[in-house]
Each structure stands twice: as structure tokens, then as C-alpha cells.
TrEMBL record:
Reaction it catalyzes: 5-(methylsulfanyl)-alpha-D-ribose 1-phosphate = 5-(methylsulfanyl)-D-ribulose 1-phosphate
Top-level taxonomy: Bacteria, Bacillati, Bacillota, Clostridia, Eubacteriales
Family as reported in the entry's similarity comment: Belongs to the EIF-2B alpha/beta/delta subunits family. MtnA subfamily.
EC number of this enzyme: 5.3.1.23
Stated name of the protein: Methylthioribose-1-phosphate isomerase
Gene designation per UniProt: mtnA
Biological source species: Fusibacter tunisiensis
Length: 348
């Protein structure tokens, strides 16, 4: 079992495992202000779509506490500004806006006239988002496990584990569940340039769980797939459009093309909070561009000549036709995704 909590809220403070320092150091960062929370999301102290969502929900509470010298009416109005500050911290993972939207809507339902009670009311919703995510990831693991057979060799990209969610994980949750239920599986983990979530975080989680795993550089995946060494691919998602097009960590699209070429099933695992029913397809997904330092430096050390132009998109979009199935907490969804994702849409 994983022995850490990536996110913990207590006494109006949010404690996050500092994912920038893993696996070398297990340190924690405490967020006491809204600015601390937006920094933690931007700088990737916390990352992974569902984890960002839960963090943002508590960020709304922290932002409210920070402004508790306002009148209740003024604070209620101010909640939209807190939401905007959080939403701007990272653009691609829809879980962030989904969580802040849910918090704002919940706040609007408060009927009392006590500011402290209003804050408690908000905290109740943030807790609901937090505990639901853990529960949904557990369900994703169980549904996804029906797709896994003993002796499967599974490739995964980026980190989708207990670090990227409140608990268990999504794609890594499926792998965790398959291993826990006694299936003899092994995993190839992509290093995941440039932030190396695979090398630093997925490898760490897999080793903690004693799941047989091998780390590869991203560009080794094609050869392994062609040589028949991988028989399933499972990844997470940052935003899934209504038609099933899926934004995930840069490199996912490339994997999906190779998987299709060699007839390897390509699964996406994500909670329904990652589905953006407001958009028709992946063209509407904003792809975050990150600092060139992520490409030109390794750690503190420069590896590219100063002045070289750099293009560093953090995500790409896998077209729905490259996806075999999407595993959600509501079950495994097969194409046509447009119709079938609608069927599992949670009621507002
Ligand atoms: O930039 P990151 O590390 O936040 O990107 C994370 C991913 O792309 C994950 O695959 C995705 O958020 C799903 S996490 C369960």
C-alpha cells in the first residue's frame, strides 16, 4: 500500500507532498494562502488532473478564509475572483475548473448569514470532492481490472497514481488493482520527458507497491510495441472532449498512433470529472505551453545552447479513433464515445 498522502487539508491549511523533490526526498509543502495554492499548482508541487482538482477545491476554502475580514455578502461575491486566480494556474486539466465551478455553485446554495458557517459549508464540498475522487479512483481500478489478464505487459505514460489523484490513481490504479488481485502483470513506464513524471514518480510508486516494472525512455516505446513486447497501453487524461478526443501528457498521441499501427489496445482511465461535456472535440482544448527551461536544463544543468528556440507543449490530444476504451468510475466506455460518454454523464 502507498504510505503517503499527496494532499491533506487540516486546520485551514493544505499540506502537499512536494512532487518536485521526489523520489530523492519526501518533503511536504504547506499552503496557507491562495497564492501558496496557485504557486503549488503552477510549479507542479502538485500535478495530475484529479489532484489539481482537489487542491483547487481546498484553494477555494483557503481563499475564503484569507478574506474572512470581509462581510459575508462581499466574500460571496469575491468567490468568483478566487476561482479565476485558481483557474489561471494551469489551463489544460479540466478538473481544476470543474472543481472551482462546483465550489462556487455550492457556495451559492448557502442560505445562512454566518461567515464562519459559510466557510464550513464550503469546506464540506471540498471534502466531498476529495473523498469522491478516492472512491472514484477505486472504482476505476476495479472496472479497468476487467480488461487486464494475467501475463499482460502494460505500458503507461506520465504519472497517474496516488500522487496524481487523492488516492489509488487512474491508469496506475488499474495496474495497482490488477496486481493486488493476484494477476501476474508487469509494467513498462515511460520516462516522460521533459518533467520525467514516469522516471521520478511512477517508478517510485511502482517500486513501493512491488509491481514488476521497467523504466524506458519515451522513444523506446515504438520498438517494444513493434516487437510484441507490450500487449496493453493504459494512460490517464487531463481533459476528454464529448467525442472522446483526449488531452494527456505530451507523447500520449504518438503512443496511440503506434498502438493503432500494431493493433495494441489503447485505454484511457479517468474519472467523469475529467470529461468536458461543453466541448465537441479536442480542437477546443487549450494546451499548456511551459517554460523552455524544462527542455534546455536537466535539473540545474544546461544541456542545450543558450538562445536556441524551444517549443514545449505539456500535453497533446489523442484522437478518439485511436482509443480502444475509456475507463471511468461509471464503467468501461467503448466507441462510439460521443453517444456512450453521454450515457454516463453525471447529473448536475
Ligand atoms: O503535467 P502533469 O504532470 O500534471 O500531467 C499529468 C498527466 O498528464 C496525467 O496523465 C493526467 O493528469 C492524469 S493523472 C491521473
Amino acid at each position: 500500500m502507498h504510505t503517503f498522502k499527496a494532499i491533506e487539508f487540516s486546520k485551514n491549511q493544505l499540506t502537499l507532498i512536494d512532487q518536485r523533490a521526489l523520489p530523492l526526498e519526501e518533503t511536504y509543502l504547506t499552503c496557507k494562502t491562495l497564492e501558496d495554492v496557485t504557486f503549488a499548482i503552477k510549479d507542479m508541487v502538485v500535478r495530475g488532473a484529479p489532484a489539481i482538482g482537489a487542491t483547487a477545491a481546498y484553494g477555494m476554502v483557503i481563499g475564503a478564509v484569507q478574506n474572512s475580514d470581509m462581510t459575508l455578502d462581499a466574500l460571496r461575491e469575491h468567490m468568483d475572483k478566487i476561482k479565476v486566480a485558481l483557474d489561471q494556474s494551469r489551463p489544460t486539466a479540466v478538473n481544476l475548473q470543474w472543481a472551482t465551478e462546483r465550489m462556487v455553485k455550492h457556495g451559492q446554495q448557502y442560505k445562512g448569514n454566518q461567515l464562519s458557517e459559510f466557510i464550513e459549508f464550503l469546506k464540506g464540498e471540498a471534502d466531498a470532492i476529495y473523498y469522491e475522487d478516492a472512491e472514484f479512483c477505486k472504482a476505476i481500478g476495479e472496472h479497468g481490472n476487467t480488461l487486464i489478464e494475467s501475463n499482460d505487459v502494460i505500458l503507461t505514460h506520465c504519472n497517474t497514481g496516488a500522487l496524481a489523484t487523492v488516492a489509488y490513481g487512474t491508469a496506475l490504479g488499474v495496474i495497482r488493482e490488477a496486481h493486488k488481485t493476484g494477476k501476474n502483470i508487469s509494467v513498462y513506464a515511460d520516462e516522460t520527458r521533459p518533467r520525467q513524471q514516469g522516471a521520478k514518480l511512477t517508478a517510485w510508486e511502482l517500486m513501493k507497491e512491488e509491481i514488476p516494472a521497467t523504466l524506458i525512455v519515451d522513444s523506446a516505446a515504438a520498438t517494444l510495441i513493434r516487437d510484441g513486447k507490450i500487449n496493453k497501453i493504459i494512460v490517464g487524461a487531463d481533459r476528454i472532449a464529448s467525442n472522446g478526443d483526449t488531452a494527456n501528457k505530451i507523447g500520449t498521441f504518438m503512443l496511440s498512433v503506434i498502438a493503432k499501427q500494431y493493433d495494441v489496445p489503447f485505454y484511457v482511465a479517468a474519472p467523469t470529472s475529467t470529461i468536458d461535456y461543453e466541448i465537441q472535440n479536442g480542437d477546443a482544448i487549450e494546451i499548456e505551453l511551459r517554460s523552455e527551461d524544462e527542455v534546455t536544463l536537466i535539473g540545474e544543468e544546461r544541456i542545450a545552447p543558450k538562445g536556441i528556440a524551444v517549443y514545449n507543449p505539456a500535453f497533446d490530444v489523442t484522437p478518439c479513433e485511436n482509443i480502444t476504451a475509456i475507463v471511468t468510475e461509471r464503467g468501461v466506455v467503448y466507441p462510439p464515445f460521443g453517444k456512450n460518454l453521454k450515457r454516463i454523464r453525471p447529473e448536475e
